[in-house]
Every structure is written in structure tokens, then in C-alpha cells.
Amino acid sequence: MSELLDTEPTLLIIDDDPDTIQILSSILADQGRILFATSGEQGLRMAENYCPDVILLDQNMPGQNGYETCLQLKQNPATQEASIVFVTAQSEVGDELRAFEAGAQDFISKPFSPVVVNARIRNQLTIKRQSDVLKQLADLDGLTGVFNRRYFNRLGEVEVRRHYRQGFSLAIALVDVDHFKAFNDLHGHVAGDDTLRDIAQVLNGAVRRPGEFVARYGGEEFAIVLPYTTYEQVSRVGEWLCSNMRSRAIQHGGSPVSDVVTVSVGLAAGTPGRDTTLTHYVQQADTALYNVKQGGRNGFECVSV
Length: 305
Ligand SMILES: Nc1nc2c(ncn2[C@@H]2O[C@H](COP(=O)(O)OP(=O)(O)OP(=O)(O)O)[C@@H](O)[C@H]2O)c(=O)[nH]1
What we know:
Layout: H1 2-6, E1 10-14, H2 18-27, E2 33-37, H3 40-50, E3 54-57, H4 66-75, E4 83-88, H5 93-101, E5 106-109, H6 114-138, H7 149-166, E6 170-177, H8 180-187, H9 189-204, E7 213-218, E8 221-226, H10 231-248, E9 263-270, H11 278-294, E10 300-304
The protein binds guanosine-5'-triphosphate.
Pfam families: GGDEF, Response_reg
GO cellular component, one term: plasma membrane
GO biological process, one term: cell adhesion involved in single-species biofilm formation
């Protein structure tokens, strides 16, 4: 959460007029990182790649106009959270209404006053930041503090689509605690809860690169999303997870596998095709996980998607 609050905001200006881009950039220079695009099409690509907090959007552009761009930004799960502010010479009530109907959060008419632009964008950034914090709270698992399954489903699917478009390999890991029923039976449910928190912490140690995240998939099962990870690389992750879990040395007492709590890991990796879904990755990882459980637990298996 603190990471979210510390991040510098990103603003994207989409306008075909270089002078307007230059003026807006200098007005907003102290509000965050400023990016710009000179067409709706380029703006959509940049929004998808850089996830801006606020987009300043011109209405009249050659090719795709501001309304169409706004509608597409709001339809795409990867860009729909951005606040969109139209900055335009059109000032009729109908234009303003059309912008709001397309999903815009605010509308600034040209000629504009620099101080007013500054204040309105600052407002949008504050609202966006507050809504990000609330959304992130709603996306977290109450017990372990890692992301919840709903977040995994949403962001996992976004990653599958992104990796398909970029032609890169994505990996998904499913991690299941071994003989956890026996652990609960022996130590009680409260100790079981503490152990799930410990396990989540160990798994979080495996995610270091941007876009990687751990989610609680179900009771004693976790999922990890690993962007830009190939089948060849993913076995190292499986190895790391199993050995770091053992090193944590949480005494089990009721497991035929080991004195300490262990996990079984199923991993699926590969470049998604046009029709590949997150469900497909999860099914493949689940099959690998099942094989590990059948083979004695405390290990990992990788499958290619
Ligand atoms: N303490 C605690 N236990 C949980 C939680 N969610 C699920 N469990 C327990 O996890 C256990 C899962 O048991 P099983 O599905 O039989 O699996 P297992 O005993 O881990 O055996 P394998 O997965 O085959 O190695 C059950 O006893 C659940 O009650 C939770 O939030 N807290």
C-alpha cells in the first residue's frame, strides 16, 4: 500500500497540436511524470503500456477522435482506471455532455487558465489516488495481505492479453500447502492461520520484478503471476519456492513428507495464443500440481502452455 502512495503519478497528454502539448507539459511539470502522444491510436498504445493516472485528451484529432479514444480507454481493463480530462476548443454543452457520456471525468475548454488547469488536474490526481487505495484494499486477502482471487482473475487475464499482444512468455504458479489438514488438526486453526501468513510472506519474497504478484487462490492454495517468464526460467522459481519454504522451518509434526511445512508447486509457462485464457494457464498449472501431489509432494513440476 505504501508503495502505491509513494509512486510518482503519470500523466498522458493526447493532442495532435505540439504547441498545446508543450504548454500543458510546462503547466503540469511538477505534478508527475508527463508523457505525450499525438494521435488517439498512439495514445491508446501508450496508455496500455504506461498505465497513466490521468489522461488529458483533445477532442478533435485526425484519425480517431477524442470521444472514440475515450470510449476505447474505458472499455479496456488495462486502461479503464485512468481519469480522463478533455481539453478542447469545443465548448458547447453538447460537446461537454458527449465527453462525460464517453466516460470522461472532467472537461476543460480552451482557452484555459494555467492555474485552473493545474488545480483541476491536481483534483483528479487526488481522487484517483484515493480510489486506487480503496480498490487495492478491496483487492487484498484479509488473512494474508496478499492479493485475493478476484484480483488474480482480473489482472491475470490482463497479463495474458498483454503477453499475447507483445508475443512474450507468461508463467503462472499454483502453490498448495502439503498436509495442511493434519497441521490444523495438530496445532489448531489459529496456528494454521499464522502459518498461512508466514507462507504468503515467503511467496512474496519470490516476486521482485514489476507486474509479478502473489494472490491467495483458495483456502491453502496460492497463485503467482510471473510476467516475461519462459518455460526454461520457471523451474528456478519452483525450486526457489520449495527450498525457501523448507528453510522457513515451520515445524509441522503431522506430515509424512517432512518435519517442516512444505509446499507443492505446479507451474505453467508459455506465450499465449489469440484464444489462450487465464483459465487455460490455471488448468495446466493445476495438472502439474496434481502430479506433484501424486508424486509425493514437496516439489514442483512445470508444463508448457
Ligand atoms: N487455518 C486455516 N486452515 C485453512 C484455511 N483455509 C483452508 N484451510 C484448511 O486447509 C486444509 C486443506 O485440506 P486438504 O484439502 O485435505 O489438503 P491437505 O491436508 O493440505 O493435503 P494435500 O493438499 O493433499 O497435501 C483443510 O483442513 C482446511 O480447513 C484457513 O484460512 N485457515
